[in-house]
Amino acid sequence: MRLRIFTEPQQGASYDTLLTVAKAAEELRFDAFFRSDHYLKMGDVDGLPGPTDAWITLAGLARETSRIRLGTLMTAATFRHPGPLAISVAQVDRMSGGRVEFGFGAGWYEAEHSAYGIPFPASARERFDRYEEQLDVITGLWATPPGESFRYEGRHYRLTEGPALPKPMQAPRPPVLIGGTGPKRTPRLAAAHADEYNVPFNSVEDTAAAFGRTRDAVAASGRTAPMVYSAAQVLCCGRDDAEVARRAGAIGRDVDELKANGLAGTPEEVVEKLGRFAGIGAERMYLQVLDLSDLDHLELVAAKVAPQVA
Question: Model confidence over 238-255: pLDDT tens digits?
Answer without folding.
Answer: 999 999 999 999 999 999
